[in-house]
Amino acid sequence: MNNYKINLPEKDIPKNYLNIMYYLQKYLGKLPDPPLHPGTKQPAGPEDLAPIFPMELIKQEVSLDEFIPVPDEVYELYKQYRPSPLYRAYNLEKFLGTPAKIYYKYEGGNATGSHKLNTALTQAYYNKQAGVKKIYTETGAGQWGSALAIACNHFGLECEVFMVKTSYESKPYRKVIMNMFGAKVHASPSAETDFGRKVLTEHPDSSGSLGIAISEALEGVIKSGGTAKYALGSVLNHVLLHQTIIGLEAKKQLEIAGDYPDIIIGCCGGGSNFAGIAFPFLVDKLSGQKKDLEFIGVEPTSCPSLTKGEYKYDFGDTAQMTPLLKMYTLGADFMPSPIHAGGLRYHGMAPLVSFIYHEGLMKAVAYEQTEVFKVGVDFARVEGIIPAPESAHAIKAVVVEALKCKESGKSKTILFNLSGHGFLDLKGYEDYLSGKIN
Ligand SMILES: Cc1ncc(COP(=O)(O)O)c(C=O)c1O
User: Fold this and answer.
1) Ligand 1: which of 117, 344, 356 to mutate, most ligand atoms within 8 Å of CB?
2) How many CB atoms lie within 10 A of CB 4?
3) CA distance readout (Å), 239 to 49, 183, 234, 252
4) pLDDT tens, 383-438?
């Protein structure tokens, strides 16, 4: 009898997040370069970040502890949707005729439909503890904005979201979810902020970008006089840290299946779902236990930060308000084309993922939107889950690797992160099916 799903009991939700910084220090003896203050260009200290983030999250940002506990209250909330299932993709394997074994961790089974809730809950919790009243944020595809709206609603915080205009228009029900949980949502660039008005004056038809939306959210924080803070859905160390809960669970589930991956794949927007599934396994590569383990980050050809970007210090936002981050970047003013995978339209890559890529510990590939939607449809037909267009990028790379196995006749075990479902991305699928995307 084949087991399609490998489920863990609630008691196996990890009690701690795994901090890859500890292992990089231990096994490589080096760490990513620190963020720099945008004015002085000196390493940014906790006091520089304190106006935007609560101190507990700043501590996590620089921590070298091996494990960081999941707060009890967040742990209770995780029980509503975690552990998430690990699936064996028997039907996809059969469809492709590959000897490869394919597993995927499905993060779409919660109210927001993606992995973003894993960090939204923890971030809202620490803001509440710090006495913050309101959180400003940006959102690309709307997954992160929905997740933060849910988390803020739970902890009694106000939430205001700047949503990249192209997604605001193509995914109207994301806005409804955010409103349902009490958040205020603007299409970005908006007329609500000085920066948004400046962009609209110069580019009235701007479809928006995550860089612009971040600048608008930060302006809200600055004008709040200290009552509001900012939360980011990806890129920063503490966000990647919270997502390691995905890989920690997957490791236990694969143990039950009696397997261990040869290749681990995740799509890369800011890098958080990739890091979430990859980092707990990367420890084994760093320690020398699994030297041949491969990691592949997948991005769109229209926003190829890892495959075409430069590794340098750059701003996280268009108005150049954030600290400078050492990352693979296309430039803070890069305007990606309005593809449907809105969550992958970020000009930079997480400093931790950038560092690992620079050290040669992972590979990166980029695919075109049409080939991604094609495998998204194939996957939905055989596996019964409609993937988010972001996640379909990972599936494309899985298919490529599985077909290599078919050609060579050699079986490999492939694990990937199905970071979210595509129920609110059907406009993209509709455009693909009617031949409007090419
Ligand atoms: C479903 C989904 N997957 C992936 C991403 C990309 O973000 P990250 O690289 O931080 O996981 C997003 C971002 O919005 C998303 O909504």
Assistant:
1) 344
2) 13
3) 15, 21, 6, 22
4) 999 999 999 999 999 999 999 999 999 999 999 999 999 999 999 999 999 999 86
Separation CA 44–CA 324 (nearest Å): 9
- Report how far residue 146's alpha carbon sits from residue 162's, in angstroms, rounded to the nearest whole number: 12
Ligand 1 atom closest to the Cα of residue 420 is 1
pLDDT of 43 reads 95
Is residue 364 a contact partner of residue 298, using CB atoms and an 8 Å limit? yes
User: Is the domain defined by 5-13+71-113+236-433 classed in CATH 3.40.50.1100?
Assistant: yes
Residues with CB under 6 A from ligand 1: 114, 140-141, 143-144, 234, 267-274, 343-344, 388, 390-391, 419-420
The percentage of the chain sitting over the pLDDT mark of 90, rounded to a whole number, equals 93
Compute the distance from residue 35 Cα to the ligand 1 centre, in Å.
23
Nearest CA to ligand 1 atom 4: 390
Three-class SS string for 135-183?
EEEEECCCHHHHHHHHHHHHHCCEEEEEEEHHHHHHCHHHHHHHHHCCC
CA distances from 131 to 75, 126, 135, 156, 229 (A): 20, 9, 11, 11, 10
Structure tokens at 342: 């809105």
Mutate which of 177, 379, 390 for ligand 1 pocket (most atoms within 8 A of beta carbon):
390
Ligand 1 centroid from CA 105, angstroms? 14
**Cα Dmax for the chain:** 63
Question: Which ligand 1 atom lies nearest to the CA of residue 234?
Answer: 10
254-282 average pLDDT score: 98
User: Is residue 250 predicted with pLDDT exceeding 80?
Assistant: yes
